Amino acid sequence: MTTLHIDLLIALRLAGHFGLTPDALLTHMRRGSHRNLDEPRLRKALSELSDKFFFATPFTSSTGSKRWCITGRGEAALKEDGI
Predict the structure, then answer these.
(1) Which of 10, 45, 50, 51 is deepest in the core (most CB within 10 A)?
(2) Where are the domains of the chain?
C-alpha cells in the first residue's frame, strides 16, 4: 500500500458509517500531503482499496450519492500498522 492508500483509509475511518463522496475525499486529500492528486488517481486508489485489498467499499446513500467507507478489513489493517 502507498501513503495515498493509508491516508484515504484514515479519512474514511474518520468519516465513520456515513462515508465520504469522491469529491469530498479529493478535497480532503488535496488539503493534506496530496496537493497534486487528480480525480483519475483518486478513483484508481479507491478501486485498488476495494478490489485488491478489500479495505474500502462504495455504497449509495439514501440521498442517492455514491460514497465510500472503510471495511472491517481496512480497520484491522490500520490497527495492525499501529495507526
Answers:
(1) 45
(2) 3-80
How far apart, in whole angstroms, are the C-alpha atoms of residue 9 and residue 11? 5
Residues across the chain: 83
Q: Considering only CA atoms, which of 17, 77, 44, 18 is closest in space to residue 29? A: 44
pLDDT band at 24 (very low <50, low <70, confident <90, very high): very high
Answering whether pTM is above 0.70, one says yes
CATH of 3-80, one of 3.40.50.360, 1.10.10.10, 1.20.58.1000, 2.110.10.10: 1.10.10.10
Confidence label for 78 from pLDDT (cuts 50, 70 and 90):
very high
DSSP secondary structure, 16-57, as one string? GGG-B-HHHHHHHHHHTT-TT--HHHHHHHHHHHHHTS--EE
Give the three-class secondary structure for 66: strand
